Amino acid sequence: MIDRYEGSFFGRRKGKPLSPRREALMKNELPRLALDLSAAPPEDLRDLFGGNVDTVCLEVGFGGGEHLLHRARTEPHTGFIGVEPFVGSMAKVVTSLLEEQLANVRLYDDDAVNVLDWLPEASIDLAYQLYPDPWPKKRHWKRRFINSQNLDRYARVIKPGSEFRFASDIDTYIDWTLRHCRDHPAFDWTARTASDWKTPWVGWPGTRYEAKAVREGRVGRYLTFRRV
C-alpha cells in the first residue's frame, strides 16, 4: 500500500494486467491526453482544449469513468479534467476517448493534490468528487481526501459562485464532509430541503459504485457546496 500523507493518495494503483492493446494505448496515447504539470498552466484553462470549450470542470477520482464520459459526451462545449491514479480505470477512459473521438477531456494519472496545486486560482467552473474511497475504519479516516488542507486547495481553484459536488453512500463520510465544509469559510452548503441532498443532480448517469451501494442496501447522498 502507498501512503502519502503530504499528498492524499493512498492505496494500490494496479489491479489486473492490462491487455496488450490497452498497454499500447496507455504508452502512446495517454501522454497526448495528459496534463503536463512540468509546464506552467495556461492563464485560461480553456486553452487546454484548443479553445473549443466554454467552461472547465474537474473530477477528482473518476473511478470507472461512467460520469466523466457521460458528461463529456453530452456537454461537448465543456472541458473536463479527470484525475484517477488507478491504472485500469485510466486505461478504460483512454480507450473510450479514442474510440468515441472525444476531444474535451484531459487526464492526470497520479495524486489529485498535484493538479489542485498546479491549476490557476479561480479557474474551475465546477468540481466533483463522487463516491471516493470512504476509508470506513475510524483509524483510517485521516486518509480521506476531504480535509481542511484539500478544501483550501479546492477553494483556491474553484471560481467564486461556482459549485463543489460530493456524493457518497457512506454515512460517516457524508457527515465528515458536511462537518469539514461547514467549518471551512469558503464553502456554503446549498441544501434547503431533504430532497436537495437525497436527489442526484440533473443529468446524473450513475456510477458503478452507486450501483454496488444500491445492491448492498445503501443509499447515495448528493451534497452541493457553493464557493462563496
Main features:
disordered N terminus; 21% strand; 34% helix; single chain; tRNA_(Gua-N-7)_MeTrfase_Trmb; 9 strands; globular; two-stranded antiparallel sheet; SAM-dependent_MTases_sf; 9 helices; methyltransferase; 228 residues; alpha/beta; seven-stranded mixed beta sheet; EC 2.1.1.33; Rossmann fold
CATH architectural arrangement: 3-Layer(aba) Sandwich
The major pleated sheet works out as: 7 strands, mixed
Work out the count of structural domains.
Answer: 1
| Helical/strand content category | alpha/beta
Instruction: Figure out the total of helices.
Output: 9
Give the overall pLDDT as a whole number. 92
Per DSSP, what share of the residues sits in E-state strands of 2 or more residues? Answer: 15-25%
Short structural description:
The protein has one domain: Rossmann fold (3-Layer(aba) Sandwich). It is 34% helix and 21% strand.
Descriptive account of the structure:
The chain is of the alpha/beta class and 228 residues long. The protein has a single domain, classed as Rossmann fold. It has nine helices and nine strands. The protein has a seven-stranded mixed β-sheet with strand order 5-4-3-6-7-9-8, with helices on both faces. Strands 1-2 form a two-stranded antiparallel ribbon. α1 packs across α4. The N terminus is likely disordered.
